[in-house]
Design goal:
about 75% helix; globular
């Protein structure tokens, strides 16, 4: 039997938009500190900018998910890209300390809005039976951005005019806006594959925005086509503001992800300095290998993502994470040299495997358990959980490294990775365990 169609022109557009958004996010976070150092600004300003970016992104996750549910994914993608564009063009016009904070707020808010809406749009245009596989492919934009974003940003800063950094970010933001404007499936759902989730909802009359020709949801409900959506809406009415912003049915995928994401926080913020402490020649190789392995995992996800029980897939992510940090722990007991350096680099392969599996499988759980009309809020909660976990963990790892050293910190990281599997066993639906 033929598989339901996965790739469509609209899915490619959404992946491209995701790639551009993550190039801006990854590039801005990796390059801002280097840029400020080059122009003679303080490290304190760089740290404040990183915190402000994270806070703005968190607020945006809370707001943009429900907005995408109520007013459409394209609208939020376009607005996110516009805000991101203003935040990256702004520094070219004026970049005092006060304005720098304003630009970082806009960068964080626009980035989070764009990626929340694009993640939801990707789920819309995929068949439900291949949702996990499709989410794995949709994450290619993020994986590629992790590989080339920081390197591109640092290269641009090293040019004769360091402001080329912001020209590059603005160019990526402009491309994100172009792709967001091309994401027109809500107005033309009939152009999607017949098994795309959004098209099927539209044909049932369960969509209350988007195509002006869409059947009326209220009438469809009375005819039986929209009973599930109506029941969901009625069931949520007493929940008030909290249920309006967050989608609690996404928690079974969010909680395990938050625990394993603590290991991603160490990798993002401390792997470079840990490599330097070990005497590794080029710690950046760790990130290159991790991005390469993540891309391979995403490209091969069709072989297992929707065919193997989620708890088994999560177990593989946990094992890969434990192997990665076990290798890093072994490095701390070695003398500097070729073996230590090779082990450090090789750990990046397992880091990429862990991240490349854990993110899409938990997102798939979060989305599948949520009603389609609440996928925006579900993705917002899921991505907010990842952001908060990485942010809090990074702060905690800084404290534990200062107090106890790298080896003890890595042991704690490994304990939390193992705890994420326990959380998955407890949180995943019983039929998925």
């Amino acid at each position: 039997m033929n598989k339901e169609r996965l790739f469509s022109p609209m899915f490619v557009v959404i992946v491209a938009c995701t790639l551009c958004c993550f190039l801006v996010g990854q590039g801005a976070n990796a390059g801002t500190t280097v840029y400020l150092e080059r122009i003679g600004s303080s490290a304190e300003l760089a740290g404040m900018g990183a915190l402000i970016f994270s806070l703005a992104a968190a607020v945006s996750r809370i707001v943009s998910g429900p907005l995408a549910d109520a007013h459409g994914r394209r609208m939020v993608m376009v607005m996110g890209a516009i805000v991101m564009l203003v935040g990256t063009v702004g520094p070219l016009l004026g970049n005092s300390d006060a304005l720098f904070i304003v630009w970082r707020i806009l960068q964080g808010f626009g980035f989070a809005a764009g990626t929340t809406a694009s993640a939801t749009a990707a789920a819309d245009v995929l068949p439900l039976s291949r949702l996990g596989e499709g989410i794995g492919y949709s994450g290619l934009g993020q994986a590629i951005a992790m590989s080339i974003g920081p390197a591109l940003a640092i290269f641009l800063i090293s040019t004769d005019v360091p402001e080329n950094f912001y020209f590059g970010l603005a160019g990526c933001s402009a491309l994100a806006l172009v792709f967001a404007l091309l994401c027109t499936y809500e107005k033309n759902p009939q152009h999607l594959p017949p098994t795309a989730e959004f098209r099927m909802r539209w044909e049932r009359g369960d969509v209350t925005y988007g195509s002006p020709d869409a059947p009326n949801a209220t009438q469809a409900a009375s005819d039986g086509g929209g009973k599930a959506a109506s029941a969901t809406a009625e069931g949520r009415a007493p929940g008030g503001l909290i249920d309006g912003i967050f989608e609690p049915t996404a928690l079974p995928g969010t909680i395990p992800l938050m625990l394993i994401a603590t290991s991603f926080g160490f990798g993002i913020f401390f792997m470079g300095v840990y490599g330097n402490a070990l005497g590794v020649g080029n710690a950046g190789v760790f990130y290159t290998l991790s991005a390469a392995s993540m891309i391979v995992i995403r490209l091969t996800s069709g072989r297992f993502m929707d065919k193997v029980r989620p708890i088994v897939i999560m177990g593989a992510a946990v094992v890969a994470g434990l192997v990665c940090y076990g290798m890093l722990l072994a490095c701390s007991q070695m003398a500097p040299g070729g073996v230590c350096e090779a082990l450090f680099y090789a750990s990046g392969i397992f880091y990429g495997i862990s991240l490349g599996i854990a993110m899409p499988i938990n997102q798939t759980i979060a989305v599948r358990l949520s009603p389609p009309e609440r996928w925006g809020a579900a993705n917002g909660l899921y991505l907010l959980g990842a952001d908060v976990s990485i942010g809090i963990a990074s702060f905690a790892w800084g404290l534990t490294i200062s107090a106890m050293g790298y080896a003890a910190t890595i042991v704690i990281v490994m304990a939390l990775i193992a705890a994420s599997f326990v959380a998955a066993v407890l949180c995943y639906p019983k039929e998925e365990v």
